[in-house]
Structures are given as C-alpha cells and as structure tokens.
Amino acid sequence: MDSDIAHQKRALRAELRERRRNLTSLEREDASAGFTENLQRLVAEVSAQSISCYLSSNNEPNTRPFVNWAAEQGIRVLFPISREDGLLDWTVGNNEDEIEGLAGVPEAVGELLGPIAINDVDLIIVPAAAVDASGLRMGWGRGYFDKTLGSMEKCPPVYAVVFDSEYLEEVPREVHDQPVNGLVTPTRIIAF
C-alpha cells in the first residue's frame, strides 16, 4: 500500500467520522427519513425481491427503518457477517437480534449462509465513508466489501449509503478499491 494514499485515506476518514459525530439529533432524524424514502424508491426502481443490506451503527446512515420496511414488504434481506479471513458470510436474520461483529459493527443473528449467498440478491446496499464523482467507494479500511464485490462473477447493482456531504469530487484510490453503481443520500439517488 502506498503510504501517501494510506495517509490521505486515514485523514479523510478521521474528518468524516468527526462530521458524523457532530450531527444533531434533528439532522439525524431528517437524514434517516430521507434515507428510508430513497432506499424504498431504489428498491422499486430495480424491482428487487432480494437485497443485501448492513445494519447501521450509531454514527452511520440509518438503514434500520428501511430494513423493517423491506421485511414488511416480503423482501428477502441478507445481512453481512464478518469473518476472520476478511470475507463476509450472510444471514437472513432480523434487525432485532444482533451482536457486535468482528469489525465492531452490529451484525444480525441467524443461520450462516456462506459467502456465495450474496450472488442471489437483486440489489446490494453497502456502507461507505465517502463516494466520489466517478463512483469510487472509500470504505472504513477493513476491506470486507471490497473483497466481496471484487470476488463476484456477476454482480447486481451496488449502491453505497452516505450523507450528502460525503459525496466528493474525488477520494484516494488503491488497486483493491471497488466502484459502486450508485449512491443513496438523504436527498437523492445518483446512478453512475
């Protein structure tokens, strides 16, 4: 890894974490409603019957109301489960029973389906620290989603969920970084 790029990523991630920590409860509530509405619209646009989506932690864009809505609609939702080898297993758990995963983020509890289970979904919704104008996603540095997306033979549309201020002109790029097909913010959906 180029140390200059690694340093740029660390600095940008620290800035983005601080911005997220400084959001007011009202800003979070408004953003949560916007994320939910736009994610519902995206699911309708791609006619998704099966999706993968992460369980949001406190400072992340809130996916929980959307996940509840998807379950109520009968949409199959796969949740990521982190593994020691850096890959992701999947489960059709719910967002009520959860544990803290290896990466320190919430994970659903349920039967493990293995890494290839994601090949059967119609839409993949991933977390991100930022996304740039070319569709490059910068994650939080663990590489779980880059490895998963990079190993898929046939990948359905992948959308990152970020706050409006995290859609940037450019993010630092490394060879393993995977692009996304679009992003969802509280105010819009952008397809690349």
Report what the structure shows:
The protein is an alpha/beta fold and 192 residues long. The chain has one domain: 3-Layer(aba) Sandwich (Rossmann fold). The chain has 4 helices and 12 strands, in the order ααβαβββββββαββββ. It has a 7-stranded mixed sheet. Strands 8-7-10 form a 3-stranded mixed sheet, covered by helices on one side. It has a two-stranded antiparallel sheet with strand order 4-5. α2 runs parallel beside α3 (64-72). 34% of the residues are buried. The model has no long low-confidence stretch (mean pLDDT 91). Substrate binds at residues 55, 60. ATP binds at residues 9-13. This is 5-formyltetrahydrofolate cyclo-ligase. Belongs to the 5-formyltetrahydrofolate cyclo-ligase family.
CATH topology: Rossmann fold
User: Any guess at the CATH architecture?
Assistant: 3-Layer(aba) Sandwich
Helix content: 25-40%
Low-confidence stretches: none
Determine the number of helices (DSSP H or I, runs of at least 4 residues).
Answer: 4
Approximate strand percentage: 15-25%
Structural class: alpha/beta
* Mass-distribution shape: globular
Count of beta strands: 12
Order of helices and strands: HHEHEEEEEEEHEEEE
| Mean pLDDT rating | 91
Q: How big is the Rg?
A: 16 Å
How far apart the termini lie comes to 27 Å
Number of domains: 1
